[in-house]
Amino acid sequence: MAVAFQHEATNGDAITARHGLMSPCLIDSTNEGVCYRSDATPKTRRKNGMLPVSRRLFMSGTIATLAAAGIGSRSFAQGGPALVLGTKLELNTLDPHFFNGFPQGSSHSLIFDALLALDSELRLVPGLATAYRNIDPVTWEFDLRQNVKFHDGSDFTADDVIATLERVPKVPNSPNPFTQFTRSIQSTEKLGDHKIRFKTATPTPTLASDLARVFIISKKYVTGSTADFNNGAAGAAIGTGPYKVTDWVNGQQLVLARNDAYWGEKQPWAKVTEKVIKGDAGRIAALLSGDVDAIDEVPTIDIPRIKQDKRFNVVSGASATVQYIAMDAVRDVSPFISAKDGQPALLGNPLKDRRVRKALSLAINRQLIVDRILDGSATPASQFLPSRFDGTSTKLKVDPYDVEKAKGLLKEAGYPNGFKITLHATGDRYPKDKDIAQAVGQFWSRIGLQVAVEALPGTVFFTQATKQEYSVFMAQYGTEEASIGPRALVHTPGGVYGTANRTKFSHTDIDAAIEKAQAEMDPVKRKPLVQAAIEISMNEQAIIPVFHPNAEMASKAAIAITPRPERRFNALMMKPKA
Predict the structure, then answer these.
(1) Is 117 in contact with 55 (CB distance < 8 Å)?
(2) Most CB atoms within 10 A, among 214, 263, 341, 378?
(3) How would you classify the pairing of strands 294-295 and 312-318?
(4) What is the DSSP letter of 376?
(5) What share of the chain is helix, strand, coil (3-state, %, to 5)?
(6) What is the pTM of this model?
(7) Helices of type H across 330-432
(8) Is 65 exposed, middle or buried (0-12, 13-18, 19+ CB in 10 A)?
(9) DSSP string spanning 170-228?
């Protein structure tokens, strides 16, 4: 009997995410796996060899206690308190299938549900599906939750799942599409209103965890455009989630009302407002003045001051995100690479040479960035995910800061005098993103490169990066399962692969290693294959991992925040303290 995923950490601070590394079911002799039961108790768990799971939804406290603590004192709606959040990042869209990004997923998870969900420790838990079975390597069956209503009162059925999966690949102009999670599905068969069968083109061991990332919409809106979803309360953003949209102004705020017909536990907040406050000083001021109840992306320089004030809490959480540098290693001529002033013209694109890519990595002092710019609120990176996550490589180490070795590699590759290059980055998206890009530019100049750094608004940056307009750029990518990073970031784009590979990086050995891991359904055999794919990706320097950022949040003292590794910031993470 193969265990699908485990709930206990394997060591002191290990976070297990086995759902991506092994068949997500308990397999019996009939080869039909029962993944979980919502009625499992400690007794039945031991008897049946099953692990209990339950979606972690938060209970509410009393209104009197909340009012006394200053939570929701500005208004009480529908018999409960209001929660106001100040967030740095814009939502940009209410279309749950347009942009696979963490600010979007954070807000969308309040409005929509997926078939499965991830709890705060990245374990698969029931969502709109109550159970699933892996019948054979290419056949999966899901039992759907009954008596679930969309916000407009219509019933949730298998037809809505089918409609959702039809829509995902048809959403145009997505800067980071969800197709990597759905393209493996070759056919979908309705077995009843609340039962569905998927056939995949090839064995897909990650299908269950992949579908935890796809929010289900009503079949009424299968042909709805992104603009239709963005039409606020009058639009197509009708989900089954714990909150429903009452107002949305792009770039300003999202206002939600509690869904009292929600199938899960009742939420403590009757009204939730997410206010976009891009400026760090503005968010801090809003918290200190009481205009908001909690904020994200707290500047590390302000953390000591907030901690000293007993009215507030500061919460720091390690993330499953990597800040990385992507390089154009495909084109013979790259748009922002040329010979240094006064030097002969370059022969070709230096980034096509692995030695040059490795030199750029060795030239970066990651620890200095973490210590001096981020004030310790990150860890240097050696791969896609922090090493505490299950399935990551135990062999890879952070590249040391070695200027002389980097210079030697450039000379060996035929660039002893360096070259001219522009590093593009966001200037308003991530903590200290512009400062970090400037630091990387300075490090590269020490090995002989002539570096320009251009920091752009996130909306401009991602559009241009997706169009392959840069030679080198810095961004972040968050993932909760070890194989997603290689699949999305460094596999040659096509089909289910390379959906976030904006430089179109391509390497046959990397592709083969990833595909071999994706074809292996046996969890014990698959884990080393995933690790091997990660290792060859890093050895070829397909990307340069720089650091894994922490999530820094602050709230009023009466609010308890449970940080999430995928860096979400929303009402589902917050509950009133008893």
Answers:
(1) yes
(2) 378
(3) unpaired
(4) T
(5) 30, 25, 45
(6) 0.80
(7) 354-362, 366-368, 403-412
(8) middle
(9) G-TT-SB-SGGGTTTEEEEEEEETTEEEEEESS--TTHHHHHTTSB---GGGTT--HHH
- From first to last of its 578 residues, the chain has per-residue pLDDT tens of 222 322 222 233 222 333 333 333 322 222 233 333 333 333 333 333 333 333 333 333 333 334 434 554 444 444 679 999 999 988 999 999 999 888 899 999 999 999 999 887 788 999 999 999 999 999 999 999 999 999 999 999 999 999 999 999 999 988 888 998 998 999 999 999 999 999 999 999 999 999 999 999 999 999 999 999 999 777 899 999 999 999 999 999 999 999 999 999 899 999 999 999 999 999 999 999 999 999 999 999 999 999 999 999 999 988 999 999 999 999 999 999 999 988 888 889 999 999 999 999 999 999 999 999 999 999 999 999 998 888 999 999 999 999 999 999 999 999 999 999 999 999 998 999 999 999 999 999 999 999 999 999 998 999 999 999 999 999 999 888 899 999 999 999 998 899 899 999 999 999 999 999 999 999 899 999 999 999 999 999 999 999 999 999 999 999 999 998 888 999 999 999 97
Range of the domain at 542: 321-549
Residue 30 is encoded by which pair of tokens? 């009939």
The number of residues in the chain equals 578
For the CA atoms of 399, 400, 406, 407, the dihedral, rounded to the nearest 10 degrees, stands at 180
251 by Cβ neighbours in 10 Å (0-12 / 13-18 / 19+) ranks as exposed
Backbone φ and ψ of 130, nearest 5° = -95, -20
Number of domains in the chain: 1
Alpha carbon distance 448, 207 (integer Å): 46
Contact partners, residue 513, CB within 8 Å, separation at least 6: 486, 529, 532, 533, 536, 537
CB 547 within 8 A of CB 377: no
Is residue 242 included in any domain, yes or no? no
Collect all residues with Cβ–Cβ distance below 8 Å to 553 and sequence separation of at least 6: 294, 295, 296, 298, 314, 315, 316, 317, 561, 563, 569
The kind and range of the H/E element at 548 are strand 543-556
Comparing CA positions, the residue from 309, 228, 260, 325 lying closest to residue 546 is 325
Tell me the C-alpha distance between 425 and 444, whole Å: 15
Listed in sequence order, the residues at least 6 apart from 113 whose beta carbon sits closer than 8 Å to its beta carbon are 127, 128, 215, 216, 239, 240, 241
State the CATH number of the domain containing residue 400.
Answer: 3.10.105.10
Query: Which amino acid, 24?
Result: P
Residue 138 forms part of a structural domain? no
Cα–Cα distance for residue pair 538/576, rounded to 1 Å = 43
On whether residue 379 sits in a domain, the answer given is yes
C-alpha 339/C-alpha 419 separation (Å) is 5
